[in-house]
Amino acid sequence: MSGLLRPAAEWELVTMIADLASRNCPVEVVGHGSRRNLGRPVAAEVGITTTAIKGITLYEPTELVMSVRAGTPLAAVEDELARRNQMLAFEPLDTGPALGVPRGQATIGSVFATGLSGSRRISAGGARDHLLGVRGVNGRAEVFKNGGRVMKNVTGVDLVRGVAGSWGTLAVLTEVTFKVMPVPEETLTLVFFGLPDDIAVELLTTATGTPFEITGAAHLQAPIAARLGHDALRQQGKSVTALRIENFAKSIDYRRGKLKEVLQAYGRCHELGRESSIAFWSEMTGLSVLPAGPSMLWRISTAPRKGPEVVRAIGRYMPAQALYDWAGGLVWLEVSPSADAGAADIRRVVASHGGHATLIRAEADVRASVEVFQPPNPVAERLTRGIKDAFDPAHILNPGRMYAGM
Hints:
- The chain has 406 residues and is α+β, with helices and mostly antiparallel strands.
- It has three domains: 1-183 and 375-406, Uridine Diphospho-n-acetylenolpyruvylglucosamine Reductase, domain 3 (2-Layer Sandwich), CATH 3.30.465.10; 186-286, Alpha-Beta Plaits (2-Layer Sandwich); 296-369, Alpha-Beta Plaits (2-Layer Sandwich).
- It has 16 helices and 18 strands.
- It has helices spanning 10-22, 74-83, 96-99, 108-114, 121-124, 127-130, 159-163, 197-208, 222-225, 231-234, 249-262, 274-286, 307-315, 343-353, 364-369, 378-391; strands at 3-5, 27-30, 46-49, 56-60, 65-69, 86-87, 131-138, 143-147, 171-179, 181-182, 186-193, 214-220, 240-247, 270-272, 296-301, 320-325, 330-335, 356-361.
- The chain has an eight-stranded antiparallel sheet with strand order 14-11-13-12-16-17-15-18.
- Helix 13 (307-315) packs antiparallel against helix 14 (343-353).
- The two termini are 19 Å apart.
């Protein structure tokens, strides 16, 4: 990419996209660029960054709603919310450490454009579930706005959910409006050591099936747990299985006791207090235990109890190490470097067990040669192409980022 355009206002962005569309000139759309190495490489000589389109335009703490221009750093949004003891409940995922980029580089626009959510998704929902409204510019250089400041039933086309997770292939977001939530009064994590994958996921699914409001459920194989920043956890030299409970202190005490009764057959239970819990789950959200390196990284979604089966089946074809989140429904899998990142074998295994897989970390030549995102079925592909043609008929916005030819 030889040139980077920095519009400071929406009208500038409109002018730039109109010019690019008239010349049929492909453009790479980025925020700060922290996720540029995730997805298929974009063949474009020009880039557009939204980092100059920033600022909080609306924040009503009592209404639990915020509107922010898309180029605003996520860190700035979280800092402002923290001042009012509020948060983004879906825990935006920071892929920086996994891609060799410092933490805290993401923009709020990229959070919703990619739709990547952290461990609390199992209880709070994903990023798109919290998105109330969007404003942006499509590939026709048209400004559009959809949604509002409250969640409601939608009649017609729901552009909010359509744009969320589209990775900049449909439009350049300029503003997002979303729900926020109060920070829990208390946080506690129950930890078990040394459980094999099958038993650990059985524990996690048992716990999440209780009425005791689990907001985080993860299992780290021993080699990955050895990378934790928490000394006491890392020095065990064993796998780590963790359950988070949050809310009011009295509620925590009751649920902790009940969970220990339900899970006593799984062995001794250890506890992490508030500060240690926050630090542990921050490592999950920041993927700091999956740091950039020679290994390739996959993100696999499947039925929670199928997670260990999927990992075991993939392990027959290649060395693999796993971190299970969402009670086993999300598997972060590190595999050895190869010409196709093990894509053929991994997709075959995932297809036989159910689910989908996304290649998160690999060299550009590998990402250019394989399907990075889960290939859509024929019906979904036709719909996806139709939406792309409607938003961006010249296919100038992030062409090929998600799928070849789109």
